[in-house]
Amino acid sequence: MATLQRGARRALVLAVAAALLAAAPSPGRPARAATASPSEVVIEGFAFSPKTLTVAPGTTVTWVNRDDEPHTIMVHGSPTPLKSPALDTGDSFSFTFDGPGTFQYFCTLHPHMQGVVVVR
Amino acid sequence: MSDGHDSLGGTTRRRLLKCMAYGSAGVLWTVSGGVPRPFALTGDAEAAAPAGEFSFVQISDTHIGFKGAVNPDPGGTLKEALARAGAQHPAMMLHTGDVSHLSKPEEFDRAAALLKEANLEIFYVPGEHDTIDDRGRSFFERFGRASGTGGWYSFDKGGVHFVGLVNVVDLRPGGLGYLGPEQLKWLEDDLRGRSASTPVVVFAHMPLWLVSQEWGWGTDDAEPALGHLRRFGSVTVLNGHIHQVIQKVEGNVVLRTAYSTAFPQAAPGTPGASPGPLKVAADQLRSTLGVRRVELMREKGLALTDATLAS
């Protein structure tokens, strides 16, 4: 699993720039939060916003930490194990969800913080 | 259970506010035999505190590497805390975790160098900030004392049995702090056969009781751990994590969280607040940070005294 995560992380680093470019709102898909693009999750006040994000397959989702506290993103109960490094204030992390599915995740530092990415 | 399960309401809440108000006004808050008692500082903590047989200090949540506006120099406030702690000539020190802010090697190195200046024997347990990415491997390499366990350990000193627990690794989605069955079994075995008259001090990062479900301030499986401890006549549970002093008393078991030496956090349930760093004015910072002295009193158990860096 560790090797898989390292591999995934390398791919994710490469995906960050593309994600930032691709993060503009797509036509016909309303933004779910005033401060976030349709594929962005803002971490603020120890919560993921939006808590549930629905995207199309192939979408790169970016998490941005706006707290004064580090957070992580770890998908659980899914065939695609995903764990981010610790995101300090202002850090972001991106992951491309290739196939459909429901991906539940949480912050490993503050496990009461939970979110979901639905890919369909 | 004298303080009730809900530590946020009623008496405990009022006591907390009173305690913090006294703390900033230069009055110490002491617990002897489980009964909290404030008494005035005469300007010398040594003179005010009753003489005990054995004493140690607790510091917590040093967060070396933190760069937030509320305290850009957590190394500086740690030095102040260590100076206060050392002035009381304790036999040893406990550090209840979050030594670092981001588990970075340079943060651990800086913290180790600062803490070495205390010239005290220090016993550590990790916080969740110390175990990011590697389940605490690099933390335990520097600060660990355990062998053959997941980092938990015990030792005897000054007639007290000390137990250091790890409740910040393998946290589960939606959960709180977590000890796990292996550690609970170890605790049961560790305590078996010990005399009930031995004072026991348990130290762990996250509170071993539910301070706030909403903010994740508690430990999922604290109850079975406390179950192994209740037969002892004097049990003191020292925690960190929430950067403020909150206490619960349950029979012979006193559970109390500690000040940070780096930055404060809001009281649980504060409207509009979150469990992150609380912004306070620079001239108020030191009244929100502090150290704890713990003294073994003849036939009375342990006396806990919290003092802020401003007192």
- Tell me, what's the shape of chain A? globular
Task: Name the quaternary structure.
Answer: heterodimer
Mean pLDDT of chain A: 78
Number of strands of chain A: 9
Question: Could you characterize the architecture of this molecule?
Answer:
The complex is a heterodimer of chains A (120) and B (311). Chain A is of the alpha+beta class and 120 residues long. Chain A is built from 1 helix and 9 strands. Helix content of chain B is 23%, strand content 22%. Chain B is built from 7 helices and 13 strands. Chain B has a 7-stranded mixed sheet. Chain B has a 6-stranded mixed sheet with strand order 6-7-8-9-11-10, with no helix packed on it. In chain B, strand 4 (93-95), helix 4 and strand 5 (122-124) form a beta-alpha-beta unit. Residues 1-50 of chain B have low confidence and may be disordered. Chain A binds chain B through residues 45-47, 67-70, 72, 76, 85-86, 88-89, 104-106, 108-114, and chain B through 67-68, 70, 101-103, 128-129, 132-133, 171-176, 213-216, 274-277.
Brief synopsis:
By secondary structure, chain A is α+β, with helices and mostly antiparallel strands.
List the helices and strands and how they pair.
The complex is a heterodimer of chains A (120) and B (311).
Chain A: H1 2-22, E1 40-43, E2 48-49, E3 52-55, E4 59-65, E5 74-76, E6 82-83, E7 92-97, E8 101-106, E9 114-119
Parallel strand pairs in A: 1-4, 3-9
Antiparallel strand pairs in A: 1-2, 4-7, 5-6, 5-8, 8-9
Chain B: H1 10-24, E1 27-32, E2 35-40, H2 45-48, E3 54-59, H3 74-87, E4 93-95, H4 105-116, E5 122-124, H5 137-143, E6 153-157, E7 160-164, H6 181-191, E8 200-203, H7 222-229, E9 235-239, E10 247-250, E11 253-257, E12 290-297, E13 301-308
Parallel strand pairs in B: 3-4, 4-5, 7-8, 8-9, 9-11
Antiparallel strand pairs in B: 1-2, 1-13, 3-12, 6-7, 10-11, 12-13
Helix pairs in contact in B: 3-4, 6-7
